[in-house]
Design goal:
The structure is a homodimer.
Chain A lengths: L6 E5 L7 H14 L6 E4 L14 H12 L6 E4 L6 H10 L9 E4 L4 H9 L5 E3 L11 H14 L15 E5 H5 L14 E7 L3 H13 L8 E8 L12 H12 L3 E4 L11 E2 L5
Parallel strand pairs in A: 1-2, 1-3, 3-4, 4-5, 6-7, 7-8, 8-9
Antiparallel strand pairs in A: 5-10
Helix pairs in contact in A: 1-5, 2-3, 3-4, 7-8
Chain lengths: ~280, ~280
């Protein structure tokens, strides 16, 4: 994709973002690519507000389709997570047209619902990685630089270190994947290295979600599980007496899914890119 | 079951309970049935402790089987919820013997995992209703009295008011049912009136779980959904702008599942009995 100018469209399928965040990311992109700045278009919907969401379900679906179906856009970049993609996904899928298949899609957390659905629908350039809102994190410029380097140049250094284009891969937030299991959005992950991360959940919830994930017959056909970072784990009452790695190993052991160690992903600025499939 | 003496075995498949709770429930049972007090046996495992749980996974499974397979016990009463049934369910199912099929099983919340698995395995007297620990609630004696009246006499007044023995019914905690979908434990609820309740979850989580539940092809074949009480809802940031009934109606509407109104169940002393199937 090292063409003259990469055109990136930003949409917010879940929670809203601020104008300030958009300005910061625009400025950073201009400074990182002085000769060929990517063109970043923030759909006005990103700044809309409707209760919990960046606009109502219909508004968010339409904005997503505006960008996804636009012939002059190369990449769809999700603004942020929060919650809400599952409320617009059905309308979003219904409206997809041919140009949507030729694009890159990048996001994580709640956006995993969209990544799953698009990957299941055969889209070839779907990836788990930093979103616009990550600029607000400690070291957030690095995360944004990584996302841009992926979208603009497919820079290999942006990839999770074990992604090699030989093994199929996929990555999800643990809770978000759990909430897709047994629905028509559940992706086929046969033979994939499945990387999982979590944020702001108590250990008993992580344990329960991993029971759920590893008990699913489709998930049992993955090549193995790699655990990303589980950050900001909320208090467990009483103490759970196991950490997230012990929990993940337990469920791999019980389910017969190979435990493949840790993954360099998470709700933080170090969150590396994981393309879905073998599409490096 | 109005025989001379009902023998009830209590086991704790998730979190532990205290001796004090056991004593209170014994005393209440003696005062409610002065002429034919039910015999309540608290398995010592109820008071065991292992991290988050009432004993480790193997201990909890073995205790459950001690009671379920005992020929001299009429009812298996779950001590309380919390979290942990999904960690012992596989071993529990593996060890079930013939006498286990002739018993009543009563519980809710985390115990929904056991209710689902037993119902799926064809057990005929599985019911959603108060547990031993409910004695600690405001008005908890009423809940315990209701549970005993169900186990001892199958008293019709204990039933959720719309349970009539004509329509098949089932009841679950929303999160617990969500975490069973797409696993071999998911029960066949075709044609059932499905009653759902929740406690201590933020509205966005209730919304997400109802997306999950109503998107499942098996659940779409229920006769309809009735919403029990959603209590102690934790703060949503920002305000979700919909209450639990609006959320449930939205997902019924999107999925085509009939909305059947409210159900008289919940994490409180008024929690009525809902037998699984048409087994009144």
């Amino acid at each position: 994709m090292s063409k003259e100018k990469c055109r990136i469209g930003v949409v917010a399928p879940a929670s809203r973002m601020s104008l300030e965040v958009a300005e910061k990311v625009q400025a950073l992109a201009a400074s990182l690519y002085p000769d060929r700045p990517p063109e970043i278009f923030f759909h006005p919907q990103c700044f809309a507000s409707h209760g919990h969401f960046a606009g109502d379900d219909e508004t968010r679906a339409r904005a997503f389709l505006d960008i996804a179906n636009d012939d002059n856009t190369d990449a769809v970049w999700f603004a942020r997570g929060g919650y809400g993609s599952c409320r617009m996904i059905e309308a979003a899928l219904r409206g997809l047209k041919e140009p949507s298949r030729r694009k890159t899609y990048l996001g994580y957390s709640d956006s995993g619902t969209l990544l799953a659905a698009l990957y299941r629908a055969g889209f070839e350039a779907v990836a788990h990685g930093p979103m616009v809102q990550d600029i607000l994190r400690d070291g957030g410029e690095v995360a944004i630089g990584r996302a841009l380097a992926w979208m603009v140049d497919r820079a290999p250094k942006t990839l999770e270190p074990t992604v090699n284009g030989l093994n199929k891969t996929a990555a999800f937030n643990i809770t978000v994947l759990s909430q897709l299991l047994g629905t028509p959005l559940q992706p086929d992950l046969d033979g994939h290295v499945l990387m999982l991360e979590e944020v702001s959940e108590a250990m008993y919830r992580i344990d329960r979600s991993l029971f759920h994930i590893t008990s699913n017959p489709g998930i049992r056909r993955v090549a193995g599980i790699k655990l990303g970072r589980c950050s900001d784990i909320t208090a467990n009452q009483p103490n759970f007496a196991m950490n997230e790695e012990e929990v993940a190993r337990t469920w791999c052991d019980k389910s017969g899914i190979p435990w493949l160690g840790r993954a360099d992903i998470g709700h933080d600025a170090s969150n590396k890119i994981v393309p879905f499939g073998s599409g490096v």
